[in-house]
Amino acid sequence: MGKVMHKRSKPLQVNPFKLSQPMGATLAFLGVDGCMPLMHGGQGCTSFTKVFFTRHFCEPIAIQTSAVTDAIAVLDGGDYSIVESVKNITKKVAPSLIGLHTTGLPETKGDDVRGVAAQIEYPLVYVNTPDYEGGFESGWALTCTALIEQLTEPAESIDDNKLVLLPHVSLTPIEVEKIKEFIEGFGFNVLALPDLSTSLDGHLGEKQAALSSGGITVEEIRTFADAGLVISVGDSMQSCATALQKKNPEMRHQHFSHLQGLEATDALAELLLTETGFSGPPLTVARWRQRLQDAMLDSHFSLGQSRFLVAAEPDQLAGLCQALYDAGGKVTVAISTVDSPQLEKIKADQVLVGDLEDAEQLADNYDVIVSNCHCEALAHRLHKGLVLRGFPNWEQVGNPLKNDLLYEGGAYFLFESANAATVMRDAGRGTRTPENHCF
User: Fold this and answer.
1) Can you give the residue ranges of every domain in the chain?
2) CB 174 within 8 A of CB 201
3) Average pLDDT over residues 122-135
4) How would residue 13 be classed by pLDDT, with cut points 50, 70 and 90?
5) How far is the C-alpha of 319 from the C-alpha of 352, rounded, in Å?
6) What is the pLDDT of residues 233-281, one digit of tens each?
7) Of 136, 147, 318, 362, which is the most exposed, with the fewest CB atoms less than 10 Å away?
8) CB of 225 within 8 A of CB of 159?
9) Beta-carbon neighbour count of residue 290 at 10 Å?
10) Between 283 and 432, residue with greater pLDDT
11) Which residues 6+ apart lie within 8 Å of 282 measured at CB?
C-alpha cells in the first residue's frame, strides 16, 4: 500500500482528464431503452457531450438541451425552458422516458427541477448533477439512484432467480454483457441498470434512430424490487443498491469494488455457487480461469520489470491496479479524477487526486501509462508506453468491445499490458522505438 493523498495542493487543474457529472448522467440515461436525455443548461454543454460520446463510441448519440442562457437563468430560472423543451421533444418523437439532468448554470441559480418535473405530464426522471461537484462516475451513480427512486415500485416478495446488476460508469458495453453472461451461466435472470450492453455495444441497427436503442426498459426498472439478489460493482454504486433495497428489505445485496483479476472473479464465482448450490462453475468459466492463470505466468516477466502509471476514474483505477499487481506489475503512480473510498485500497506506491500535469512531473517514476487518449501526447513526448483505457478513446475503433473483466478479459488485459511493457524494455536496449506502440 502506498501513500494516499486525498487533497490537491494546487487550486486548479492544469491538464485535466476529469469529466463532469452531467456527462455521466447522459451516459446512464443512454442505457435505458428509448430514453431521451435532456440536459438542462447551455447549448455548448450539450453539444460537447454529444460530440464527445459520438467520437468515443462511433455511434449517433441522442440528446437534447433546454438551451438556457445566462439571461434566461436569471430572469425565469429556466423553468420555462424545460417545459418548452419537453413539448418540442414529444412533438417529434415518443421517448419511453425523458432524463432531465442539470449543469452548473441552473444549479448556481438554484432551479427547482423537482418542482418543474411535477408539472410535466410525461414519463420523466430528474437528477441534480452540477458540474462543479463530483465527476463522471458520480453523475452516473446519481442518475442510477434517481431511476430507482423515481421508477421502481415497492415489493414484498422476491424471485430468487432474478438478479439486478449495478455496474459502474467505466465498464464498457461488452464488459457489462460478459458479467451478465457469467451470472446467467449459474441460472439467474439478470437485469442491469444502466445497461449499455445492448444500446452502445457497436451493433449495426436497421436505421439511425432518434432515440437510444437497446438497454434496460422502463417497465423492467419498475419491477426491480422483486429481485432476490442485487450485485453492485464499483464503490460509487453502493448508494444505488441501498436505494433499491429500500424498495424491498427482503432483497439481498453483495458488493464488489471491481471485477478485475483472479481474486475478484473467484469471489463472484464463489457467491454464485453459494446462492445456487451448484457443485462447480460452468465448464467455460473453469477453462477461462485456467487461461487467466497461464496469462499471469506468461506476462509476469514483462510486467514485473516495468513501472506503471494508471490514471482513471476511481472504480476503474482500483480494478486496473489490482490486475497489474496480481501479475507482478508495479504501479508506482495512480492518479484519480476525484476522491473516493476506493483510493484507500489501491495497490500503488503513490495514489493522488490530480491531473496530467502531475503525471508529467512524476515522469521519472514510470515506464508505461494506462489511461485514456488524452495521455497519448504525453506518452509520445516522454517516450513512455501506452495502454489506452477509459474515456475518451478517440484514437482506436472498437472501444465498446474492449474487455478487461473476469477471467477472460483479465487475460486479454495482461497480454496487452505485457506487450506494451516489452516494447518499452526493448526501446531501452535500443532494439526498438516506442513511438506509435499504443495498445
Assistant:
1) 21-134, 159-283, 288-429
2) yes
3) 95
4) confident
5) 16
6) 999 999 999 999 999 999 999 999 999 999 999 999 999 999 999 999 9
7) 362
8) no
9) 11
10) 283
11) 185, 186
Nearest CA-CA partner of 186 in 279, 254, 261: 279
Cβ-contact 65, 41 below 8 angstroms: yes
C-alpha cell at 182: 457469467
Structural contact between residues 354 and 8, judged by C-beta atoms closer than 8 angstroms? yes
Dihedral of CA 37/41/47/50: which sign?
A: negative
pLDDT confidence of residue 77: 63
The answer to whether the CB of 370 falls within 8 A of the CB of 16 is no
In CATH terms, are 21-134 and 288-429 the same topology?
yes
Q: Which three cell numbers stand for residue 74?
A: 436569471
- Written out in words, the top-level CATH class of the domain with range 21-134 is alpha beta
pLDDT digits (tens, 9 = 90+) for 81-96: 899 999 999 999 999 9
Contacts of 252 (CB under 8 A, 6+ apart): 228, 229, 230
Please tell me the distance from the alpha carbon of residue 119 to that of residue 68, in angstroms, as a whole number. Answer: 19
Class (C level, CATH) for 159-283: alpha beta
Q: Which residues pair with 331 in a beta bridge?
A: 308
Residue with cell 482528464: 17
The mean pLDDT of the chain is 91
